[in-house]
Amino acid sequence: MKKLIVAASCALAMAAGTVQAKDWKEIRLAFDVPYEPFEYRDENGELTGFEVELAEAMCEELKAECEFVIQAWDGMIPGLLARKYDAIFSSMSITEERAERVLFSDPYYITPGGWFARDGFSADVTSKEEMEGKTIGVQRGTTMDTHATEEFGGIATIKRYTTAEDMVLDLEGQRLDVVFVDYPVGEQTILSQEGFKEVGEPVKLGQGVAVAMRKRDKDLANKVNAALKKLKNDGTYDAIMKKYFSYDIKI
Amino acid sequence: MPDFIAQWLNQNEIFTAMTIMEYWNGLVNTVQLVFLSLVIGLVFAIPLAILRTSKNPLVSGPVWLYTYLFRGTPLLIQLYIIYYGIAQIPGIQDTFWWEIFREPFYPALLAFALNTCAYTTEIIRGAIVSTPAGEIEAAKAYGMNWWLRMRRIVLPSAARRAVQAYSNEVIFMLHSSAIASVVTIVDLTGAARNIYSRFYAPFDAFIFVALIYMVLTFILVFAFRKLENHLLRHQRPVGS
Q1: Neighbours of A174 (CB within 10 A)
Q2: For B45, which of A134, B6, B121, B177 could close a Cys bridge (C-beta 3.0–4.6 Å)?
Q3: pLDDT tops 60 at residue A10
Q4: Does residue B77 fall inside a structural domain?
Q5: CATH number of the domain that B212 lies in?
C-alpha cells in the first residue's frame, strides 16, 4: 500500500512537472458575459465585443490556441487561482488589492466611470453637501464602488449590486437617485432609454484595465505584454477600438 | 474593546474594526428580518391553520391555494417578484406605499413572512389534524364548545406535536434569509459579499460568516430543546 502511495505521488509530481513547463500554445481566457460592448453574444449567439476581438488578435500574435471560458464576475479571481483558466480578459481594472492576488499585464484600456440619473436629478455629483442623503447605486467590488465609498461613504446611502441590470431596474424604479457605473455600460444600458441623462463629468479612475494571470505565470505575462504592445503599435488595436467606441480608451 | 483584541485586529488585514462593524450591522439586519418575519408568520399561521382544517371548501380552499403557491415556488423568485414587481406598478412612486416599499427591508420582510407563514400553516394544520379523536370526544363530553375545545385541548396538544417541525422551519428561515442580499440589504451574507469583493478573500469572508450562522443556529437549537422539554414535561418518567 505504502509503495503504491509513493508511486502515485511520484506520478503526480511528474504530471505537475509537465504542467509547469507549459509553452503556452493553449491558453484559456475568462470573460464575464454580457458586458457590452466589451464582451457579449451577438444575435447568432457568437461571443463578440472589443475584448473578445482583442483577445483573438492577441492569440493570433502569440500563435496560441485560445479557449474562451465564461465566468461570473463574483468568482473571477478564485476561478483563476483554481486553474479553471489561465488569464482573465474581462475588463478587470488594476487595483492594489487585486495585485496581491494576481499578476497584471500592462494596461490595455481605460474607461472613466460615469454618473447617470433620471431626468430631473439636479445635484452636483462632486459636492459632498449636495449629495447628502442621496442614494447611489454601484456594482459591488468595482473601482466605482471604491471611489463612491471613499467620497460619499457615510454621507449618501451606497447600495451595492451584483449585476448592472438589477441596478438599472432600481434606478428606473426610483429606488436609486443616481448610479455610478463604468461609462460604456451606462451609455449602453441607461442612456439608450428615454428619461435618463448623464450628470457631471466622467471620472477617470485607477490605472486602467489589464489581463490578470496567476502570479507564477511570469512567462505568460511577458508574452502577453509583448503581443499587446505590438497590437497597439501596428494599428490592429485602433481598428478594433473604432468598431466599438466613438471615443478613445487607449492607454 | 479589550486591548489584546484591538491589537490582534490591528495586525490583521481583513478583520479590521471596520469589517467587524460591517458584520455586526449584517447580524442586526439578519436577526431583525428573520425574527420579525417568523413572528408575523406564526401569528397569521395559527388562524390560517384552523381555517385550513375546516370542512367547508370555501373556507379551506383559499388557504390551501395560498400555501400551495408559496410552498410551490422558490423564495428567491417570490422576493424578486415582490421587490422588483412593486416598483413596476404604474404610479406607485407617488403614493404613500412607496415610503414603505422604497427600502428593500419591507419587500423582503413581506416575502419572508408570506413564505414562512405558508410553511407554518401546514405544520400546524398537520398537528391539528392528528389530534387523537379521544381527546376531542372527551372535551365534547365535558360540554366544551368549539372555541373552548380549540383553546384548551386542540391547540396546546397540537403545539406539542408541531414544535419539532417548527424548529426546523425556523432554522431554514434563518438560512433562507441569506438571499436578502440580492436586493441590496446588507445582511450577514451581504456583509460577507462586500468584504469578499473588497479583499478578494472568499475563504476568510465566507467562513467567518458561516461560523456566525452556525452560532445562531446553535442558539436556536438550544432554545427549542428547552421549549420542547417544557412542553413535553408530562411525558417524563415520574421522579426524574
Answers
A1: 15
A2: B121
A3: no
A4: yes
A5: 1.10.3720.10
Measure CB to CB from residue A78 to each of B193, B198, B202 and give the nearest one.
Answer: B202
Contact B114, B37 (CB under 8 A): no
pLDDT tens digits, A150-179:
889 889 999 999 888 889 989 988 899 999
- Number of domains observed in the structure of chain B: 1
Tell me whether residues B87 and A175 touch, CB distance under 8 A: yes
Residue B240 falls within a domain, yes or no?
no
B173 domain-assigned:
yes
The answer to whether the CB atoms of B184 and A170 lie below 8 A apart is yes
Which of B84, B184, B200 lies at the smallest CB-CB distance from A160? B184
pLDDT at A187: 85
CA-wise closest residue to A24 among A51, A47, A48, A58: A58
Catalogue all structural domains in chain A, each as residue range(s) with its CATH number: 24-110+207-244 (3.40.190.10), 113-203 (3.40.190.10)
A162 in contact with chain B, both atoms CB, cutoff 8 A:
yes
**According to the model, what pLDDT value does residue B240 have?**
57
* String of DSSP letters for B33-73: HHHHHHHHHHHHHHHHHHHHT-S-HHHHHHHHHHHHHHHHS
CB A165, CB A139: distance < 8 Å: no
Look up the domain containing B132 and give its range: 3-234
Q: Identify the band that residue B8 occupies on the pLDDT scale cut at 50, 70 and 90.
A: low
Listing DSSP states for B180-228 in one string gives GGGGT---HHHHHHHHHHHHT-HHHHHHHHHHHHHHHHHHHHHHHHHHH
Q: Is residue B112 part of a domain?
A: yes
**Chain B residues inside the 8 Å CB shell of A166:** 182
A170 in contact with chain B, both atoms CB, cutoff 8 A: yes
Residue in the block written with cell 500563435: A63
Cβ pair A141:B102 closer than 8 A: no
Say yes or no: A79 contacts chain B, CB-CB below 8 A. Answer: no
Whether residue A160 and residue B84 make contact (CB cut-off 8 A), yes or no, is no
C-alpha cell of A196? 435618463
Q: Write out pLDDT tens, residues B139-187.
A: 999 999 999 999 999 999 999 999 999 999 999 999 999 999 989 999 9
Contacts of A74 in chain B (CB under 8 A): 193, 197
Which parts of chain A are beta strand (E)?
Answer: 26-31, 40-41, 47-48, 65-70, 87-88, 103-109, 113-118, 135-139, 157-161, 178-182, 196-203, 209-213
Exposed/middle/buried for residue A225 (C-beta within 10 Å: 0-12, 13-18, 19+): middle
Which chain B residues contact residue A161 at CB under 8 A? 184
Q: Which of residues 150-179 of B touch A (CB under 8 A)?
A: none
Q: Is-above-0.90 flag for pTM?
A: no
* Nearest CB to A174; choose among B93, B184, B200: B93
Amino acid found at B78: Q
